[in-house]
Every structure is written in structure tokens, then in C-alpha cells.
Amino acid sequence: MNNENIKSVISAQREFFKSNRTKDVSFRLEMLNKLKRAVIKYQDDIIKALYDDMKKPATEAYIAEVYIVLNEIDILLKETAKWAKPRRVKTPPVLFSAKSFIYPEPYGVALIISPWNYPFQLLIDPLAGSIAAGNCSVLKPSELAPATSVLIAKMIKEEFDPGFIAVVEGGIESSTALLAEKFDYIFYTGSTSVGRVVMRAAAENLTPVTLELGGKSPVIIDEDANLEIAARRIVKGKFFNAGQTCIAPDYLYVHSSIIDNLNFILKEKISEFYGEDPYVSSAYARIINDRHFYRLSKLISGNVIYGGKTVPAERYISPTIINNATWNDPVMQEEIFGPILPVMPFTDLESVISEINSRPKPLALYYFSNNSAKQEKILRETSSGGVCINDTMEHIISEYLPFGGVGESGIGAYHGRASFDAFSHAKSVLKKSFLFDVKLKYAPYRVSLSALKKILKILS
Predict the structure, then answer these.
(1) Are 183 and 10 in contact (CB under 8 A)?
(2) 181, 246, 335, 408: which is the annotated catalytic residue?
(3) Residue 311, domain member (yes or no)
(4) Residue 444: inside a domain, yes or no?
(5) Cα 244 to Cα 101, 237, 276, 288, 357, distances in angstroms
(6) Cis amide bond preceding 444, omega within 30
(7) Does the annotation count 388 as an active-site position?
(8) Does pTM top 0.85 for this prediction?
(9) Where are the beta strands (DSSP E) in 190-236?
(10) Could you give the CA distance from residue 152 to residue 132 in angstroms, rounded to a whole number?
(11) Domain contains 184
(12) Residue 65 near residue 121, CB atoms below 8 Å
């Protein structure tokens, strides 16, 4: 789509928004229901497109791309009418004749840009929040997942007025053209490096943003952890979607007293999940494209104790464990975003906390231990977008937990109420009557400063 077409799309959406149709809660609910019906109607096509793009297993595609979206829509259908109502809040005594309210209002025209790893969920999930909040939306699917991009464009075109929701396909040139335009809100999911580009573009128009980014999400396994369960949950989180998940466990810090046992059980669990040769498993995805395949292949070095197999023609990289990794290794220099799991020993939890805190704040942090005091220590002394204790990635499923990053791992959050809030401006409203009008507050001021301080102290 060329620049002129993009301008016409945005212009049409501005006109649609000016009609005030999206401010009607019944309209929002109607559109959410329409979106839900569309996802259900196209769910088989969605699963097929995801397989075509990256051989994503049907079960993973349904759980992570279809179910999560439907669950998000359901909670928004249930709660939007309540969340959209003006909410009365307290008024300080100094404003004794007034009433105070918060009015949630839509921003206007929102731009939503999604990545390739969960190309359906990470576009349609925030779209649901944008609809619930009353915005018009321009969607930019990832060109790196072309089958899913084409399907999304078809689904949205068939179901929605382009003045309300439109899809702009294409590569970097389309994204660049979109970011050159003025939007009222931008929601971006992807890499930290591109997140900086998006934020710079947004700054030109002082456009508010949500940035869902990434980072190296650590896993700490302490000496008292249940290794059987920990290994199962780590393997599930790390190798789901072949490790191409923003909150996947990036690396392990394992207490030195249990590291050999854990490594042994990790290998067992990989075989249990994917068979002796994951290459032939129908439950194991492939790398999205050649560039990411070769980037990941170069990270496989050092003490490889499991896997390491690659098949370039199919962009296959086996589940791989690298033992005794160090921060100097190539695999520890960037977010892995693939099925390679570095393991590092530790003896002192304080040093692990210090090491993690010396680096950019991760999107997620995982800690395995039965020690409640140590659990609280981790929660109190580290900073991350989210935390799971004794599991990985599960926090993303709950519509009651805001999902988002902090620092270099992101700005803002969504899911459930947080989705509605992300796409809404909380407008402060003060209503006063004409019954009282204290003249002391008007010039020329007839009260001394000392008396004014006493009055304000009484009223505060």
C-alpha cells in the first residue's frame, strides 16, 4: 500500500471516529461479538496459516493464538459496559461544592503493529482492547508471517468497515509510511531495537504508546526445587513454538548442588515431549525464516550436552542445552528467541540477583523454590515485567494479570481490564454547582497568607 492509500485509510478512520459511533457501548459490544464470530469462523484457516508460516503445531496454534484471543474477547464482552461508565471518585473538602469523576474516553485512531512469532494473537488481542475502548484501528501484521498476514487482511476486510478497522500489509516500507503519519495511539509488539524506532516516531507527534518488547528472561532454580516438575515446566516454556516467545525462559541459573541432576531430567523431558528425534515430532515448530535460523545456528557453541542439530533446508534447530555457559559466550549477548538453553551454575543467590540487576530489566523472571522467604526476596529485590514462581509463561494466560514490560522490556500493559485502560484516556472531570461561590479565592485577596494556611489545613 502506497503512502497516498495509507493517508486515505487514516482519513476515513478519522471521519468514522468523528461520527461518535464508537463511543456507543452497544456498538463496541456488537463489534466485539462480530470479531469473536470471525475468529471462530476462521479458526481452522488460522491454524493452517500458522503451520504454513512456521510449522506451528495445531495444539500450540489453538492455545496460544485462538484460545487466548477468544478468552480476551469474552472478558471484554462481559466487562466493557461497566468499565466504560464514568466513575465517581472522592472530592477533597477544599472543593466542597464539587463532584469528581473519571470518564474513560477513546483516543481516536490507533495503530497496532504485530510481530511474527504469534502473528495472529499479538495483533487481534490488542485489537479487541482497542474496540472495547471505542477506537478505530489500523492493523499492521508482520510480513515475516505472510500466510497469516493475508488471512488477517481477508478476515478483517470481509467482516468490518475499513473506516473502523483496516489492515495495511507490506514490509518495512509500509511500517515506515505508517509511522510517518499521525495516530492517536500506537501499540507495538516486537524487538527492543524496533521499539526505539517506534517511540522516536511517536515522539514527533507526542503520541502515547504501548511497547511490548522482550529481553533475556532468566530462570533461577534453587537447591530445594522439585526438579521433576521444574524441568517439565522449563522445557514446556522454553521449547513451545521452538523458543520463539518473548517470555520464553532465556537462560537458567541453577544451584551447583543440583545442576547435574537437573540437566539429566531436562534431557528426559525433552525426549518425553518430542521423542528421541524432535525433527520428526509433529509437536515441534520451525524457525520463522533463514535469517533467524542462521543467527541462532551461530549461537550453538561451547559445552553442548543435548541437541545442537540443524537442518537448514527446513529451518530446523533441535532443542539444545549448553551447560556451564558464561556471560562472555555469544549465546548470552542477546535475547536468544529460539530453542537454545544456556545453563549456568550458582552457589549464592545474592550474586545471581546482583548479576540480573546489572543488566536490562527482563520481560519475565522465573524462580523455582519452596522457600517462601527466598521467593519474597526475589520479588522484592529484582525488577521485571512479570514473575512466575515455580512455573514459566503461565502468567500471560490470566486476564486478571496485566501483561507488559519495564525499562527496555517495554512500556505499558494489556490483557483484560489493562487492555481497556491501555486504549482509553482517563479524563478527569470536576462538576460544580452555582449554589456556592466563595469570594475569598478571588482577587483582590482579602485574607492574609497565615490565615489562608490555617483554612487550607482545616480543609485538607
Answers:
(1) yes
(2) 246
(3) yes
(4) no
(5) 44, 10, 22, 9, 24
(6) yes
(7) no
(8) yes
(9) 209-212, 218-221
(10) 19
(11) yes
(12) yes
Q: d(Cα 439, Cα 416) in Å, to the nearest integer? A: 47
How many other C-beta atoms lie within 10 A of the C-beta of residue 149? Answer: 25
Q: How many domains does the chain have?
A: 2
Among 256, 255, 252, 316, smallest CA distance to 284 is for 316
The CA distances from residue 317 to 289, 300, 313, 394, in Å, are 12, 10, 11, 25
**For 239-276, how does the pLDDT look when each residue is reduced to its tens digit (9 = 90+)?**
999 999 999 999 999 999 999 999 999 999 999 999 99
Residue 18 belongs to domain spanning: 3-213+412-425
366-408 pLDDT, tens digit each: 999 999 999 999 999 999 999 999 999 999 999 999 999 999 9
pLDDT of residue 445: 87
DSSP characters over 235-275: HHHHHGGGG--TTS--EEEEETTTHHHHHHHHHHHHHHHH-
User: In 3D, which of 195, 161, 234, 192 has the Cα closest to residue 12?
Assistant: 161
Check residue 215 and report its DSSP letter.
Answer: -
Q: Is 314 an active-site residue?
A: no
Exactly one of 65, 212, 335, 399 is catalytic; which is it? 212
